[in-house]
């Protein structure tokens, strides 16, 4: 059976989310580099896979799939029974996984990706960091993390006492927030968030992926 | 068995999404009104259900759940086999449903809901609609709809030739864009998007709202 093909970019948070999930599920894959720096993601060949022109996209037999969070759910469902269980054990637990996945996608991701974009990406493109935007989004992110702090004081992981897609979704951006943006205090100043971060970021499946995300 | 309780507001797009889904799945529910104008959603009683202080939240027996897109996935999964099938017929179709649900949540909803916010919420709070912000977000919505136009020229609905959660997710916001914000031309100027919209907005469940 042909291995799953992942079209992505080594520094992309969304790509690394998918690679981490493949590792957790012990699924083989081939990595196809889409070099964002040369605009490969906007060329017809890639747009034929993903008309939104963003990475990653996967191919699994006849199925072409994009949107990293949808890819995660597909892999977690298709490969249920091998590797780490990422969807909880019951329908109610699965619902809570989806709830905290949505929280990541709707409340955590917008501010954190703005911070990372302003600090990491904008200067590399010749612009200058909008400090006001960074400050505003640090405040937003802080409010979200306060809710996480309360949640994680009662629950080992976000969806319950089990690691799941919801925790996994937070890995790539939080990694950049700490290691490349110098905003680690947002995590380390919150006791339970910090303990949760130490736990999930020390998973070997993640450490392998984090190698792709070293920033000069 | 106790009915599902939906805590929400009848005008909230996220609440309407959940109610629509319950009706498609033919599931009985009771609606507990959360008075947003009175700030109920920020009171301890509601925050105990949803610490983010937004509507809706549902209670189904012991389970309390928030985030409308997670709620509808839960309902579509739990009630598989009754009402409308909303997840496709196999793992691959379900993956495509999920993909287009993410497109709605990540690419369509942010600009569309910003237009709604500027049009409806800002004036209620005593401010003035920022037309430059509206214009910028209409441009973003239009770029997304161009991709939908291409997709819907090859597929009856977003995930395939079957109605799904992905189409459902677009109903509440698009209805307001057309009927409240006067932006109907973004839909009606695109042949296949227009046909798709006519189809999904005329489903009996949707017409009852």
Automatic annotation (TrEMBL), chain A:
<dbReference type="GO" id="GO:0004364">
    <property type="term" value="F:glutathione transferase activity"/>
</dbReference>
<dbReference type="Pfam" id="PF00043">
    <property type="entry name" value="GST_C"/>
</dbReference>
<feature type="domain" description="GST N-terminal">
    <location>
        <begin position="2"/>
        <end position="83"/>
    </location>
</feature>
<dbReference type="InterPro" id="IPR004045">
    <property type="entry name" value="Glutathione_S-Trfase_N"/>
</dbReference>
<dbReference type="GO" id="GO:0006749">
    <property type="term" value="P:glutathione metabolic process"/>
</dbReference>
<dbReference type="InterPro" id="IPR010987">
    <property type="entry name" value="Glutathione-S-Trfase_C-like"/>
</dbReference>
<dbReference type="InterPro" id="IPR036282">
    <property type="entry name" value="Glutathione-S-Trfase_C_sf"/>
</dbReference>
<keyword id="KW-0808">Transferase</keyword>
<dbReference type="Pfam" id="PF02798">
    <property type="entry name" value="GST_N"/>
</dbReference>
<dbReference type="InterPro" id="IPR004046">
    <property type="entry name" value="GST_C"/>
</dbReference>
<feature type="domain" description="GST C-terminal">
    <location>
        <begin position="90"/>
        <end position="216"/>
    </location>
</feature>
<dbReference type="GO" id="GO:0043295">
    <property type="term" value="F:glutathione binding"/>
</dbReference>
<dbReference type="InterPro" id="IPR040079">
    <property type="entry name" value="Glutathione_S-Trfase"/>
</dbReference>
<comment type="similarity">
    <text>Belongs to the GST superfamily. Phi family.</text>
</comment>
<dbReference type="GO" id="GO:0005737">
    <property type="term" value="C:cytoplasm"/>
</dbReference>
<protein>
    <recommendedName>
        <fullName>glutathione transferase</fullName>
        <ecNumber>2.5.1.18</ecNumber>
    </recommendedName>
</protein>
<dbReference type="InterPro" id="IPR034347">
    <property type="entry name" value="GST_Phi_C"/>
</dbReference>
<dbReference type="GO" id="GO:0009636">
    <property type="term" value="P:response to toxic substance"/>
</dbReference>
<dbReference type="InterPro" id="IPR036249">
    <property type="entry name" value="Thioredoxin-like_sf"/>
</dbReference>
UniProtKB/TrEMBL annotation, chain B:
<comment type="similarity">
    <text>Belongs to the GST superfamily. Phi family.</text>
</comment>
<dbReference type="Pfam" id="PF00043">
    <property type="entry name" value="GST_C"/>
</dbReference>
<feature type="domain" description="GST N-terminal">
    <location>
        <begin position="2"/>
        <end position="83"/>
    </location>
</feature>
<dbReference type="GO" id="GO:0006749">
    <property type="term" value="P:glutathione metabolic process"/>
</dbReference>
<dbReference type="InterPro" id="IPR040079">
    <property type="entry name" value="Glutathione_S-Trfase"/>
</dbReference>
<protein>
    <recommendedName>
        <fullName>glutathione transferase</fullName>
        <ecNumber>2.5.1.18</ecNumber>
    </recommendedName>
</protein>
<dbReference type="GO" id="GO:0005737">
    <property type="term" value="C:cytoplasm"/>
</dbReference>
<dbReference type="Pfam" id="PF02798">
    <property type="entry name" value="GST_N"/>
</dbReference>
<dbReference type="GO" id="GO:0043295">
    <property type="term" value="F:glutathione binding"/>
</dbReference>
<dbReference type="InterPro" id="IPR036282">
    <property type="entry name" value="Glutathione-S-Trfase_C_sf"/>
</dbReference>
<feature type="domain" description="GST C-terminal">
    <location>
        <begin position="90"/>
        <end position="209"/>
    </location>
</feature>
<dbReference type="InterPro" id="IPR004046">
    <property type="entry name" value="GST_C"/>
</dbReference>
<dbReference type="InterPro" id="IPR036249">
    <property type="entry name" value="Thioredoxin-like_sf"/>
</dbReference>
<keyword id="KW-0808">Transferase</keyword>
<dbReference type="InterPro" id="IPR034347">
    <property type="entry name" value="GST_Phi_C"/>
</dbReference>
<dbReference type="InterPro" id="IPR004045">
    <property type="entry name" value="Glutathione_S-Trfase_N"/>
</dbReference>
<dbReference type="GO" id="GO:0004364">
    <property type="term" value="F:glutathione transferase activity"/>
</dbReference>
<dbReference type="InterPro" id="IPR010987">
    <property type="entry name" value="Glutathione-S-Trfase_C-like"/>
</dbReference>
<dbReference type="GO" id="GO:0009636">
    <property type="term" value="P:response to toxic substance"/>
</dbReference>
